[in-house]
Specification:
- InterPro entries: Fe-S_metab-assoc_dom (IPR003808).
- The protein is mainly α and 137 residues long.
- The chain is 55% helix and 12% strand.
- Strands 1-2 form a two-stranded antiparallel ribbon.
- Helix 3 runs parallel beside helix 7.
- The protein is globular, with a radius of gyration of 14 Å.
Length: 137
């Protein structure tokens, strides 16, 4: 049985609480981004591009056995880390759970507070893109 969105968010909050300053948190996000599987070149299209991000961010959904899985990539290290953390929360979940999810971890780990306004807007654009896929599924 896969973990719920809530359980995954709690894990992320715990991981971030072990990091003492923002430099460590940024480094951790960048490392998460580096762990993403290679994104397929044929999906680097307008269709999968997240609107409202300064960086280029692509997210492609796959529906398998009633659960959504996501591939993602970005052209900047920090943004790649942000999308990595979001797909960690959402991949393997049902479309309904994704659409209904409240992402408390974004506030709790301080991402909303620490990111620049343009990055924060980009983060929320990524969330909207992921939830949009869930609503269509």
């Amino acid at each position: 049985m896969s973990k719920s969105i809530e359980e995954i968010q709690k894990e992320i909050i715990a991981e971030f609480s072990d990091l003492t300053d923002w430099e460590e948190k940024f480094q951790y996000l960048i490392e998460l981004g580096e762990e993403l599987p290679t994104y397929p070149d044929e999906k680097r299209t307008e269709e999968y591009l997240v609107p409202g991000c300064q960086s280029k961010v692509w997210v492609a959904p796959k529906l398998e056995a009633g659960r959504l899985e996501f591939d993602a990539d970005s052209d900047t290290a920090l943004t790649k880390g942000l999308i990595a953390i979001l797909i960690r929360v959402f991949s393997g979940q049902s479309p309904k759970d994704i659409a209904d999810a409240s992402l408390s971890f974004i506030e709790e780990v301080g991402l909303a507070k620490f990111l620049s306004i343009s990055r924060r807007n980009g983060l929320y654009s990524m969330v909207q893109k992921l939830k949009g896929y869930a609503e269509k599924a």
